[in-house]
Amino acid sequence: MTMLGFVLASAGVLLLAIAALGLFLLPDALSRQHAATKSGTLALGLLLIGAALVAGDPGWWIRVALILVFLLLTLPVASHLLARAAARHAYTREQLREARDPEIDR
Question: What's the pTM?
Fold first, then answer.
C-alpha cells in the first residue's frame, strides 16, 4: 500500500504542477480558472488519498474523506460562480485574454 500511496501522491503533485503551469500559459481568464479548479480538485484528491495510504491509520481516512467532500462541494461551485460573474458582465474573449492581475501590474 505504501508504494501505491507514493505513486498516487506523486501523480497528484505532478498534476498540481501542470495546473499551476496552466495558470500562466492559458490564454484567457476562464481557461485559467478551469485549470485551477478542475485539475486542482483531482490533484488534491490524488495527493490526499496517497497520503492516507502511506499513513495507514484509520484516522487519516476520516480526515481525507472530510477534506475531499469539502473540496468537491466548494471548488466547482466557486468556479461556476466566477464563470457566471464573467458571463454576466458580457466580457468578450479578447477582454478576458487581456485580463491582468492588479497585484502584478503595480
Answer: 0.72
Start-to-end Cα distance in the chain? 49
Inter-axis angle of helices 40-55 and 58-88, nearest 10: 170
**Could you give the CA distance from residue 44 to residue 36 in angstroms, rounded to a whole number?**
11
12: which residues sit within 8 A by CB, 6+ positions away?
43, 44, 45, 46, 47, 48, 50
Assigned C-alpha cell, 75: 471548488
Measured CA distances, 57 to 2, 69, 79 (Å): 12, 19, 33
Cβ contacts of 49 within 8 Å, gap of 6 or more: 5, 8, 64
Cell of residue 96, nine digits: 478576458
| pLDDT per position as a tens digit, 51-73 | 999 988 888 899 999 999 998 88
CA distance 44 to 9: 9
